[in-house]
Amino acid sequence: MSKHRIAVIAGDGIGQEVMPEGIRVLEAAASKFNIPLQFDRFDFSSCDYFEKHGKMLPDDWKAQIDGHDAIYFGAVGWPDKVPDHVSLWGSLLLFRREFDQYVNVRPAKLMPGVTAPVVRRDGSPREPGEIDMVIVRENTEGEYSSIGGRMYPGTEREIVVQETVMSRIGVDRVLRYAFEVARSRPRKHLTSATKSNGIAITMPYWDERVAEMAKQYPDVKVDKFHIDILTAHFVQRPDFFDVVVGSNLFGDILSDLGPACTGTIGIAPSANLNPTRQHPSLFEPVHGSAPDIAGKGLANPIGQIWCGAMMLDHLGHRDAHDAVMRAIESVLQPGSGAPRTPDLGGTASTADVGLAIAQALKF
Ligand code: NAD
Ligand code: IPM
Ligand code: MN
């Protein structure tokens, strides 16, 4: 089997703490399933690198990273050192665009042993698996556009404009991906996030493309909700959702809300995919660098570990993916006595949880 070359970028804050645990578990999976993994570590795409070099990335970053089979990414951002829009547009958002990672797949699932803060209408707790959705986020255009600017700066006539861009190719390709995911799941249900009542040019276009695409997927049940009521439905009936597709911004918001409904954003993974495989895809937890808990060993590493499992799947190792997921579930299992981090009500450290999952993988 040829070697998989993984570019490792830990980034800032808890990215530096959860990454070693992600690698620990990947190494355990690689040894169990005899998968040749090579990790190439990069210190750029961090605010420390910016402080030294005045930029987030070296000029030849693309040549250094392209050619890897995948990117395993932690989190970027340290607003006290570098403004967020500078650090993120100088790294993560650039990777997504330059590597054409146009789909962002973000599962949100209620795991065994985790209490969902959102209870049923009768007040009873939700069961594991009762919340099980995949958010498919458009990842290279939409509201995250660099078209716009500031006019008459510093005057009372100051105006700022930022355009939302939706191209037919851009919208259709992410919708097609989402419909395919919906078709592959037992419930075959796709929900589209819209706001075509208020955002009266781009969002009606999004709805129009959803309706057009739906004609090719008569087996998929499709519905749509405006983003405002959709967030309310996530809280009040999260079990209703199967696959949810949204524009870049709506997908971003829903993919923090979905995992929060399943207990913690600390376990949520994401896969920034280039489905054509012309460039590497990027696997990262949904959460950020969490400056409030960084450096204390309190971060939950499960988001980092779960997206490592998604990376193994992407590299063709479904069995290793399934084994990592079973190991995560066994550690979360109620009564397992396994360590858990404070976001899940425990007192364990990031490394305790990483070790327990790597250990569980051996059996
Ligand atoms: P955040 O996700 O970093 O943190 C939000 C809250 O969730 C914090 O209270 C934090 O302690 C908690 N949290 C996050 N991850 C956790 C984990 N693994 N275990 C336990 N608790 C966890 O969001 P933020 O505070 O809005 O952003 C902080 C910085 O990270 C900013 O610079 C932001 O731009 C950046 N950010 C980066 C990414 C990324 O690189 N993909 C994603 C989101 C935010
Ligand atoms: C995410 C993050 C990023 C985004 C930020 C850090 C630019 O919130 O990956 O969800 O908005 O896409
Ligand atoms: Mn986000």
What is the topology, as strand order, of the major beta sheet? Answer: 2-1-3-12-11-4-5-10-8-9
Oligomer: single chain
Order of helices and strands: EHEHHEHHEEEEHEHEHEHEEHHH
Number of discrete helical segments: 12
Distance between the termini: 24 Å
Biggest sheet record: 10 strands, mixed
**Percentage beta strand:** 15-25%
Bound molecules: nicotinamide-adenine-dinucleotide, 3-isopropylmalic acid, manganese (II) ion
Inertia-based shape:
globular
Radius of gyration: 20 Å
Query: Low-confidence parts, pLDDT < 50 over ≥5 residues?
Result: none
**Counted beta strands:** 12
Average pLDDT score: 97
What structural class do the secondary elements suggest?
A: alpha/beta
Helix content: 25-40%
Describe the structure.
With 363 residues, the protein is of the alpha/beta class. Helix content is 38%, strand content 19%. The chain contains 12 helices and 12 strands. The chain has helices at 15-33, 47-53, 61-65, 84-89, 92-98, 168-184, 202-214, 227-236, 248-261, 302-314, 318-332, 350-361, and strands spanning 4-11, 37-42, 70-75, 103-109, 132-138, 148-151, 159-162, 189-194, 221-226, 243-246, 269-273, 281-285. The strands form 2 sheets. Strands 2-1-3-12-11-4-5-10-8-9 form a 10-stranded mixed sheet, sandwiched between helices. The longest helix is centred in the first third of the chain and has 19 residues, at 15-33. The radius of gyration is 20 Å and the shape is globular. The structure holds nicotinamide-adenine-dinucleotide, 3-isopropylmalic acid (IPM) and manganese (II) ion. 3-isopropylmalic acid binds at residues 77, 88, 93, 252, 286, 288.
